[in-house]
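Ligand: zinc ion. Inputs:
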Amino acid sequence: MNAQQSDNTGHNAQQLRVGHGYDLHRLEPRSPAGDGRAFLLGGVELEHDLGPVGHSDADALYHAVTDALLGALGMEDIGQLFPDDSPENESRDSVEFLKEAVRRAGEDGWGVVNMDCTVILERPRIGPMKMRMRENIARAVGIDVEHVNVKGKSHEQVDAVGEGRAVEVHVVALLGRAGG
Ligand SMILES: [Zn+2]
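Predicted complex:
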């Protein structure tokens, strides 16, 4: 198909882009017993005796969403844009990384159509917090909450994630050009 032709959904193939984001953070006892931070996912704090280790606020959901957007744009990833050895990024609220990715997308004429996020975590179950995570992401991106999905999965007690030693997030995001 010629890229200028519309497909049978009416979208021009050049007006859509998909991006994938992935993140994993090790979980440790909270400071001062370990290096774990408050356990944030999509700006929502989870109750847990452990917390993610990271240079910023270690919010794996915001990080994966940010990387999905940057990936769709074909830009440098979050680690290149916001180095983890930079003092200005230490303990930084990760929603700022996401807002910067949204700003860059908008600058190039792209907006987020929808995204689907999968959080893999043994405990706690994120069910009761999912709507707040969706609302926080939707607000930062500037889209309707209906266009942001978050689901939780267990890793069935297998490997580091399943043993509760890490949190893992996958995100797929679709971007569209205005008028596409
Ligand atoms: Zn991260």
